[in-house]
Amino acid sequence: MALPTLDDPFYYLANFHTVLDWLGSRYADLLSVEERDFIAAFEALPRPSRALLVRMVMRKGVDFRASRLCYAEIGDTETAAAPLIAAGWVETDAELALPALFALTTKSELAADLAPWLAELGLSRSTGKTAWREALAAESPAPRALPAWLPSLDDTHYRLTVDAIGERFRLMFFGNLRQQWSEFVLADLGVYRFESVPLAASSRAFSRRGELEAYHHLHRCRERFDADEPLADLLAAIPREPFDNPWLERRRGRLLYKLAYRCERHGELQQALALYHDSAAPEARLRRVRVLERLARFDDAWQLAQRAEAAPVSAAEAQALGRIVPRLRRKLGLPRRDTAVPAEPERITLTLSRSGWVEGAVAAHLSRDEAPVIYVENTLINALFGLLCWEAIFAPLPGAFFHPFHSGPADLFDEDFHARRQALFTACLAALERGDYGDIVRQRFRDKYGIQSPFVAWSALDERTLTLALTCIPARHLRIWFERLLGDIRANRAGMPDLIQFWPGEARYRMIEVKGPGDRLQDNQKRWLAFCAEHAMPVSVCYVSWEEQSLDAAASGPDATAEDGGVPLAGALGALGGRSA
């Protein structure tokens, strides 16, 4: 679908000025001399030059061709570029390495001048562009300017030299390098809508210049990790001392964890153990136990596992320890410890006609007019929580919001997220006791529809499903689910059953996890199922097998071989919800 065009052709320039004004009011004390000089010089440029620079800053890469920088509102590209070149912000005809040359040109343009060289290498015009590049790279050609590469190409090469400044401005504004300049445009177009959170003049992501530089450095290290740089080089670049800033320390700890896991996979166990020890990532302790076990240091593994069992950092760690500890007991010759057998959810077995979407096939089979089955997976419980607790989630606490494009608070996954808002969440959940929670959820669904939220997937929710859920799910169950979510948001937002069946006439429901042939329950799914069974919530696991594709089987239909533990079956899809989760 084509997006509408914004009325102001210089909308992107206006957005960039908004960022500069924002930085000037909130980050004046953190801006470097270079950055302050850039802002002052930028604002003095002619509008076409400012617009051209912003076009380049907001596009990917640093190399551009004049013929591809044609914008009606800017006019002549060469005229607009002249002040940028004079300021040193854009270079002309800088040397291009072979990969940059190939990224900047088409195959036909390359062939016009490189055909003789390619022919010497035994390559024809029909050979792919990638093969051309690889063959030429084997020749190790030195970088050269575009006219030296392609003399017949009538074009000018521009190289942006202030991309690092643009990236730092983006980091200061958003507080991360994940969000792009396109957030402005998508918001202007109405593609994304964000909650209006009051922002104090002091709201910002970084309080010291050192924090900004440290974030940027860690981001570069992560990019190098993703590019599979040698571990030794990466380890030398990562700060070994913990940061005072908990936010930065979590990022450092996560990067150390990833490095440690890579070392573990490569069999470098001693290095992995040291890195896990230095990492503050919650999962690091469990990996240390596993590595100690692989090193046959069973006593050390046992001691660490005992400390973890006494105070697990998460349900996931406790679950994994439930498998590791008995194994360590056997290896150490310790007596076996009896453990409680967890409650088992109801089991459903179905034999159905083969389908490309097993959850849809099960929903169609079980759904009835008076008991519709809807595909919800993780969306329904999260949405009910997000709608009821909207005010607590979007409360303007210090450090939670610092620009207009937050889909959720910056500290959503921090350990103290709930604690900082405990009174607010208590007030929200009190509606479950009062009984007016349904009215609050329905009204908030109407008032906030389409606004970005870390819990509400609008495309997977409609008022009918909402009404069925509020009618059939007891408030007591909602409270138990919501409190579990608040205990570990990152882990517990996922793993919920695929389907839910409602009996509105009886005000009851059941949740159904679907497993097709060869599929097994994942750990997070097991934790949710055990949790529901522990609290006597109606939850089932449906195991599906496909019937033989014979004429007899086709004639008999799916109901002939289905068994669902006593629940009447129906072959129609009925009120199955859309699979938009």
Structural notes for this entry:
There is one protein chain. The protein has helices spanning 11-26, 33-43, 47-57, 77-87, 98-104, 107-120, 129-137, 146-149, 163-174, 182-188, 209-226, 231-237, 246-265, 269-278, 284-294, 298-310, 315-332, 358-366, 379-388, 390-393, 417-420, 422-434, 437-448, 463-472, 475-487, 489-492, 523-534, 551-556, and strands at 63-65, 90-92, 157-160, 346-352, 373-375, 499-503, 508-515, 539-546. With 581 residues, it is of the alpha/beta class. It has three domains: 11-174, no CATH class; 198-332, Tetratricopeptide repeat domain (Serine Threonine Protein Phosphatase 5, Tetratricopeptide repeat, Alpha Horseshoe); 346-561, no CATH class. The strands form two sheets. Strands 4-8-7-6-5 form a five-stranded mixed sheet, sandwiched between helices. A hairpin with a 4-residue loop joins strand 6 (499-503) and strand 7 (508-515). 29% of the residues are buried.
Q: Which geometry do the CA atoms define?
A: globular
Percent helix: 40-55%
Helix/strand-derived category reads alpha/beta
Strand content: 5-15%
Count of helical regions: 28
Strand order of the largest sheet: 4-8-7-6-5
Number of β-strand runs: 8
- Largest sheet entry: 5 strands, mixed
Count of the domains = 3
What low-confidence regions span 5 or more consecutive residues with pLDDT below 50?
A: 550-581
Rounded to the nearest angstrom, the distance between the terminal CA atoms is 21 Å
Q: Average pLDDT value?
A: 90
C-alpha Rg, in Å? 30 Å
